[in-house]
Specification:
hydrolase, alpha/beta, 2 domains, disordered C terminus, two-stranded antiparallel sheet, Butyryl-CoA Dehydrogenase, subunit A, domain 3, 10 helices, flat, binds 2-acetamido-2-deoxy-beta-D-glucopyranose, secreted
Length: 296
């Protein structure tokens, strides 16, 4: 075996890689099949002139492409929602519609932030922004149901943005890396927060305590979040005691008030099931040991 063989191999792989400058329908199918919603993924990637012929060599390329796709579809969905103003038949429908316009705007902001090359974001940040974006869309839909007007305007708003967004969440999650630790805490936990969690009675430093066993003020994280003040002069700390909190679906409710800025939720337990969908005002970062929820 000689250098010559190696050279040939290198040359062949070089040639191959330069040929893979655009993808065929089959490639798209292969990549999309790794997502929870392959149909809309394939449908839009094969039909959109903007996204055709982009190079996909690795998963990160595909994630980038999927993010661009969902951004494009969300912009279209936002424009479509705006155009439906005159279709609202009554004040309740108008309220639900107005909320949706804003929620689509918020979704686009998160997507733009995720895609902005100047944003220095970790996988966890990206996951947080994408989850918030997804929650916004669910809240939009839930608004029509809550107000009992789901039968008309909502049907004109049908699109595949939710599915495409879920795909990006799934793709990003694969690349999730465990955070690094210092003194038993993930490095992103700020020193002040570390002190709080290490205090001999951290619950006494919290504004409210959530506990499954009823020893706190609330038994669910969502109840504590929904009851948190909109404006707080300092940091508002919700301490969540160890236990299993399976509340993903309760977080679709968004506070209609101006964004609360200073909320933090501390969770003590590796047993706590991390919830990653929180109302728009909250961001979530989960870690195996504790989870820290607050606004960045
Ligand atoms: C959603 O995606 C499906 C393919 O999965 C497509 O047939 C349908 O037209 C899309 N809907 C919209 C509103 O674009
Ligand atoms: C988000 O990005 C798109 C595409 O670059 C741009 O057209 C849009 O104005 C941006 N929206 C906001 C709110 O930044
Ligand atoms: C976390 O919870 C465990 C039991 O669930 C308890 O022993 C421990 O002291 C708690 N840690 C803090 C910092 O509250």
């Amino acid at each position: 075996m000689s250098t010559f063989n190696l050279f040939i191999t290198l040359l062949v792989s070089f040639l191959l890689s330069s040929f893979v400058s655009s993808y065929s329908g089959n490639d798209v199918q292969l990549w999309c099949n790794q997502t929870p919603n392959p149909q809309p993924c394939e449908y839009f990637l094969t039909n959109s002139p903007t996204h055709q012929y982009k190079q996909i060599n690795q998963k990160s390329d595909f994630l980038q492409l999927s993010l661009q796709l969902v951004q494009e579809r969300a912009l279209i969905a936002h424009a479509n929602t705006l155009s439906l103003a005159s279709k609202c038949r009554n004040p309740r429908e108008t309220v639900a519609w107005t909320d949706c316009v804003e929620l689509y705007e918020q979704t686009i902001l998160k997507l733009n932030k995720t895609l902005d090359p100047n944003t220095k974001s970790s996988h966890v940040d990206t996951q947080t922004w994408l989850s918030t974006a997804l929650t916004n869309l669910e809240t939009c839909k839930a608004g029509f149901y809550e107000l009992g007007v789901q039968d008309y305007v909502l049907s004109f708003m049908s699109n595949n943005v939710t599915q495409l967004l879920s795909n990006t969440l799934a793709l990003n999650k694969v690349d999730y890396e465990e955070p690094s630790y210092k003194d038993g805490f993930p490095t992103w936990v700020k020193p002040g927060d570390r002190k709080l969690l290490q205090a001999s009675s951290p619950t006494s430093k919290a504004n409210v305590v959530v506990s499954k066993d009823g020893s706190g003020k609330y038994t669910t994280v969502s109840a504590a979040i929904n009851a948190a003040p909109v404006i707080s002069s300092g940091r508002y700390v919700i301490y969540v005691k160890g236990g299993e909190y399976n509340e993903q679906n309760d977080f679709t409710r968004r506070s209609r008030a101006p964004p609360a800025r200073l909320h933090t939720v501390h969770m003590n337990s590796s047993e706590v099931t991390p919830c990653n969908r929180l109302p728009g005002d909250f961001e979530v970062v989960t870690a195996p040991v504790i989870a820290y929820w607050g606004v960045q």
